[in-house]
Design a protein that fits this description.
The chain is α/β, with parallel strands linked by helices. It has a domain at 25-201: Aldolase class I (TIM Barrel, Alpha-Beta Barrel), CATH 3.20.20. It is built from seven helices and eleven strands. The strands form two sheets. A nine-stranded mixed β-sheet has the order 3-1-2-4-5-6-9-10-11. Strands 7-8 form a two-stranded antiparallel ribbon. Helix 2 (109-119) links the parallel strand 4 and strand 5. Helix 1 (79-89) crosses helix 2 (109-119). The model has no long low-confidence stretch (mean pLDDT 94).
């Protein structure tokens, strides 16, 4: 039998208007690393992990999420102060990755993006990792003429009760650079296959990645985990997921995205 999922970093489910009157940008962590997944895998990057998520409780979706984004442990920054904090980490040619939680809940993030656009004729590549459920963020980015400076990775989420993926907003998909689906060899899981609409988008030319799930034996703290840690990672089940993801990518003409950072033991 497939091992039960280890629930990590559960928080609360935030509504889309939770940050409507917020004056700051709520951040869980800022760190320099190597982008481990997707289109820009291998690039030096500064990750800015924003706090809060509309699936934060892990009870509706994302029960295998392994990131720490709890709102009550976050720090509030003004856009200017966050710019300074990021620049203290960033080296020339580093990309910026805004992740979460769900970063597009926080519309004040656009103020930070505006600063980067205003500071340079060639601002750094800025990637947002989103579950694709917050179209209002992208509508506002378009209104402010910022949407062309944002590179968007949509990582769709499977709803636990329905046991299927919810299709992201068509508005978000309009501005999406690539999709990334978490995949597992567990045949009972919604993450066992890419939904038909995902395969259809791939057939139309969208970059669609599959990323095998790491299976954890226990929760871990912080940003760093290693696939070589036998106490932390269930190597047998994780290896099954990696082999299955590769086979699935070949069968369906998709791209394979490995969590490179797990192999080198960095954040």
């Amino acid at each position: 039998m497939y091992p039960s999922i280890v629930i990590m970093n559960a928080d609360v489910d935030l509504k889309s208007n939770h940050f409507e009157h917020a004056e700051g940008i709520y951040v869980s962590s800022i760190f320099r690393t190597i982008q481990g997944e997707g289109k820009w895998a291998g690039y030096p990057a500064v990750f800015i992990r924003l706090a809060g998520c509309n699936f934060g409780s892990k009870s509706v979706a994302c029960n295998s999420c392994d990131t720490s984004f709890q709102l009550d442990k976050s720090t509030a920054y003004t856009a200017t102060d966050l710019f300074k904090a990021i620049e203290a980490h960033r080296q020339p040619n580093d990309i910026l990755v805004f992740t979460g939680g769900e970063p597009t809940l926080q519309h004040n993030l656009l103020d930070l993006i505006q600063i980067y656009v205003s500071q340079s004729h060639t601002p750094p590549l800025m990637q947002i990792e989103t579950n694709g459920t917050q179209p209002s963020f992208f509508n506002k980015a378009k209104e402010r003429h910022l949407v062309n400076y944002i590179r968007t990775c949509v990582s769709p989420k499977a709803l636990i009760k329905a046991n299927k993926y919810a299709k992201p907003s068509p508005i978000v998909l309009k501005f999406t650079d690539f999709l990334k689906f978490v995949i597992t060899s567990d045949e009972t899981s919604a993450h066992h296959t890419v939904p038909d609409w995902g395969l259809e988008l791939a057939a139309k030319g969208m970059r669609v990645y599959v990323s095998p799930t790491a299976v954890y034996n226990k929760p871990y703290a912080g940003e760093v985990s290693s696939i070589w840690d036998s106490d932390l990672v269930n190597k047998d089940e994780t290896s099954k997921n990696y082999a299955y993801a590769a086979k699935y990518a070949l069968e369906h003409n998709l791209l394979l995205s490995l969590q490179t950072h797990l192999f080198v033991g960095i954040a």
